[in-house]
Structures are given as C-alpha cells and as structure tokens.
Amino acid sequence: MSETSPKLRAVLDGIPTYKPGKPAAAGGPVAYKLSSNENPYPPLPGVLEEVIAAAGSLNRYPDMACTGLMNELADRFGVPVSHLATGTGSVGIAQSLLQATSGPGDEVIYAWRSFEAYPIITRISGATAVEVPLTDGDVHDLDAMADAITERTRLIFVCNPNNPTGTAVRRAELERFLDRVPSDVLVVLDEAYREFVRSVPGEEDDVPDGIELYRSRPNVAVLRTFSKAYGLAGLRVGFAVAHEPVAAALRKTAVPFGVSQLAQDAAVASLRAEDELLGRVGSLVCARKRVYETLVKQGWTVPDTQANFVWLRLGERTADFAAACEKAGVVVRPFAGEGLRITIGEAEANDILLHTAEAFLKEL
After folding, report:
1. How confident is the model at residue 15 (pLDDT cuts 50, 70, 90)?
2. So what's the pLDDT on residue 29?
3. C-alpha 359: how far from its chain's center?
4. Sheet (strand 333-335) strand order
5. Would you call 335 helix, strand, or coil by DSSP?
6. CA dihedral over 255, 256, 262, 264, signed as positive or negative
C-alpha cells in the first residue's frame, strides 16, 4: 500500500494558523486575560435565560434563515432583511465574502498590520494579498491603498477601528477613499468595535458609521459582531449589511446551519437590552480613557484608540513586556517584534497593567 498522503491544495503551504489570545493559566499566577478583546462583563440581562431555553432543543437544527435575528436587525438598523446576512462572527462572514468575490489571479487589499485573519482567509481563497503599511501613526494609509488598486482588485478590507492598533479613519478621508474605488470593487468596512467609538457625529473628523455610508454606495459592505461589546464571543454570531447582490451571495456561501439557535436567541435578547449595553460600553470607554491617559503620562507613545484596547509599539522589547505582564498577573497579546495589544478589562486588571507598564518603562 502506498505511503503517500492525500493531496492537499498547495496554497495551504505557508499560510499561518490563526493565533487566539493566550488564556489565563488555570491555577497559575495569571489572573486576568487581556489578550482577546473580550467583554469582561457577563451576558446582558435576559440573555442567559434565552440560551438556557434554547438549549432544550439542541436535538434540532437551528433556523437556517435566522429569521428572528434578521428581523430584529432590520428593525434596529433600518435596513431591508434582503440586505442582511449572518455568520459565525464577522470573521466567518469575511471568509464568505472572499469566497464570493476572489480567487486565483485576484487581489485583496488591506492595511498591515491589521486583523490577522485577513492574510489567512485571503490566501485560503487563492487570491493574492496586497498589504499596505499603516502610517507612522498606525492608521490606515487610505491614499496608498487607493493607489494599490489594479484591474485585478476584487475586495478591500478597511478595519475601522483597526485591530490591533485601535486607530480609526475619519469621515472625510474615508469618503474620499470610497470615491476613488471603482464601483466593481467591494469595500468591506469591518466594524467589530463600532460600539466603542466616541466622536462627534456630523463633524468632518468624526468616525463615520459604515451603515450610513453603505446606504448610497452599492459596493460597500459592513461587518458587525456580537462578540465584543455584546459579550457573546463564545457563541459566534455576526452579521453583514450590504446591498442585495452581495448579501444574497453571502447567504449562498454561508455554512448551512452555521449560527446555532442559542446564538440567534442570545443575539436577539442582547439587541433588546440596549440600555444596559450602552451603560456597560460607557464604563469600558471610561476605563479606556483612564488607561490611555495614564500610559501617556508615564511616557508611553500610545495611538488614539477608538476600540476596547490599546496598542503599544515596542519592537524588540515586545516579548519582554508580555512576560512582565504575565508575571504580574495579566496576559496580553504580543505581536512578535512589533508591539502589544492590551484589552481594557476589569479595574483590577487595568491597575496591574498600568503598574507593570510604569515599572517596565523605568527599566528601559
């Protein structure tokens, strides 16, 4: 019998495996996990009850059309149901977008560094990744991204706010960029952290709501998730808002029954608990402000963040700082040789982080 292995696609060679945030060590010195941008609060009121009720029907398939959730989203955001699609978190929908738009010979543009799933799902699709460096301020260089568009470009990701730097592109520059993009190129505004944005609507330098931009632009799609502000990271549910041809393609390429009934019911209950959600997000934004301002006072250079995390560019000292944090009792997300992304967590966790940062900076 032959000893050869089954033939796999050559494109898989060299594709990195997605690296999740390191968990807090069970029984170890690490007490707080600040590595995955999770919400430190428990599920919103009413959510757990809905999940428990749905668990009684685990022997049945979920509603594949996500009817209840789709109707709730349509009412919440003022969009037609036909302009919506759901998936296993926003990253699952992003992968479906690539399946629908891009393959061998096509190009996908995104900033770098940005969400680390982009290069993975782009290469899995067989498309060519075109990575455009961030500016010196760790913001998307939209002019350079527009300059990178060719006749082979099929899709562009704009992560706003950007993961892992937390920086956000503003209305005027984003609209100028969208005006430069050909109408047959899909622009995906990945807004996983939209709820944490604080800017003054209507001003030129505000951080625009992608759903408002999509309404008049058929080549714009918006990704949102219940994993961050809504605190449903463990249930994997996100959604896209896009014009009908794109939304229909997403529904066509989605994994059948991919969003569990538990996730659907929890998402609906979360949308209905908006007052509590806004209070929790407000508390996290206040904590973000405190962490940001304290780090700046200590002497760190920290990009302005509109997400639920901060970014410290430490280069060769990245691993050293991550080790110091872990020793002190918090685990953060290092990107080797570049910097660290640190989630805003419980007050005690934030305090440990700030004390560690102050001590580390004095040793440099």
Report:
1. confident
2. 62
3. 31
4. 309-313, 339-343, 333-335
5. strand
6. positive
Which of 30, 3, 121, 92 shows the shortest CA–CA distance to 326? 30
Task: Give the separation between CA 150 and CA 152, rounded to whole angstroms.
Answer: 5
Q: Distance from first CA to last CA of the chain, Å, rounded?
A: 61
Q: Residue by residue, what is the 3-state secondary structure of 110-179?
A: EEECCCCHHHHHHHHHCCEEEEEECCCCCCCCHHHHHHCCCCCEEEEEEECCCCCCCCCCCHHHHHHHHH
The dihedrals phi and psi of 360, each to the nearest 5 degrees, come to -65, -40
With tokens 């953060």, the residue in question is: 332
Q: Which residues have CB under 8 Å from 286's CB, separation 6+?
A: none
Confidence tier at 212 by pLDDT (50, 70, 90): very high
Q: Tell me the pLDDT tens digit for each residue of 299-323.
A: 999 999 999 999 999 999 999 999 9
Per the DSSP assignment, residues forming a β-bridge with 223 are: 190, 240
Q: pLDDT tier at 71 (50, 70, 90 boundaries)?
A: very high
